[in-house]
Amino acid sequence: MTVYRFRATPLTPIHVGDGNTLAPEDYLIEGDHLIQFNRAATLREMKPETRRQLEERLDRNDFQAAQELLRKSVEPRHQRCRIQIGAESKADLRKAVGNPLDPVVRQRAVRGFVRNPLTGRPYLPGSSIKGAIRTAVVNHYTEKHLPGIQPRVQPLVDQANTRRNAWKTLETEALNFEFRQLQEDPFRLVKVADAELPADRTRVDKVWPVKRDGQEDTRGIQMHFERLLSRGDGIEDGGFVVELELDERAAGDARVKVGRRLDFETIRRACIRFYAGRILAERRRFFADARPPEAIFGARGLIKINPDKVLVAKSIQERGLLLRVGRFSHFESLSVDHLRQGWNVQARRSITEGSSRTLCRCRSDTDGASMALPFGWLLLELEGQS
């Protein structure tokens, strides 16, 4: 069993949530921070006179005054976490705090980052990274063996009632493993540990969708997400380590019944090739007229985006991984080339490319200059192995 340790740098914002949202009564805004607090504990420890005042305000339906009183009763011990908040989110969420009965304003909930329930610290789930690796490896072997795989998988992709079984069949064929004999996940040979993040490396920011023509899609509600700060914000190093564990000896054991190589170099190069292709395709489709994001994706000049290709520096080719993780990765990064097919719910038709991207405004200097960037791009640079 070999453990590979990587220094991780988010190239663009990344969000991985736990499905929960923060309503206006769950937080307060103090300076440039959003403070999530334990509402139940605050109420439980409230002084009798303050509780009486709170009940009076609720009896007369003065919910705004009631929430103000609740927030004033929050003590440091009631605080769950303090999160940086961007200027646009702060302005919008202050309106939500001040208008508790407005149904439109109340929809401006905050989607938080997944956190360790014991420490309260945000973390990047190993499952998110492993899932991204899995897609790239399956794509790698699908490309190599497409003539034999496509006839088996394409009919499943084309039919709505069989589409959900397409991935299982594709993975079985691409990895050439015997599912009947191997009842476990073939990627059990690859393990990625959860990576705890520094407390000061997330921020709540407003996000918005844009169409192919660059116009903002205004049909949806305002969205605010806690996301990782990235190179777009001037962060040179994400400040955390990702550990990948690979059982290469078992991968080569004939009894495992996986017919393709799952060694480190195959995994690493599959990730670089697949996700570099996704960067280029996304750039062509959505950002062809935008300011070149080389300073962001470039990671100190390690990645260069040309009109017809993405050039990855030799140091990354030899030691790095390029991935896309988390929410707003979009289905093109979650499916393989040549067999890619999604479903447009509104148009009620199948698609091979999405029609919008979700962006977040990043600020990379003290003068407030900003750049709107897509979500999910992560660079891993190998530091050592044991």
Notes on the structure:
The protein is of the alpha+beta class. The protein folds into two domains: 2-16 and 124-385, no CATH class; 24-108, no CATH class. Helices cover 31% and strands 27% of the residues. The chain is built from eleven helices and 20 strands. The protein has helices at residues 39-44, 48-59, 63-72, 87-98, 126-144, 146-158, 166-175, 248-251, 264-286, 294-297, 314-319, and strands at residues 2-10, 17-22, 27-30, 33-37, 79-85, 110-113, 123-124, 190-192, 195-196, 202-211, 223-228, 240-246, 303-305, 310-312, 320-324, 342-344, 349-351, 356-363, 370-374, 377-385. The strands form five sheets. Strands 2, 3, 4, 5, 6, 10, 11, 18 and 19 form a nine-stranded mixed β-sheet that branches. A five-stranded antiparallel β-sheet has the order 8-12-1-20-15. A hairpin with a 4-residue loop joins strand 13 (303-305) and strand 14 (310-312). Helix 2 (48-59) packs antiparallel against helix 3. The longest helix is centred in the last third of the chain and has 23 residues, at 264-286. The protein is globular, with a radius of gyration of 23 Å. The mean pLDDT is 83.
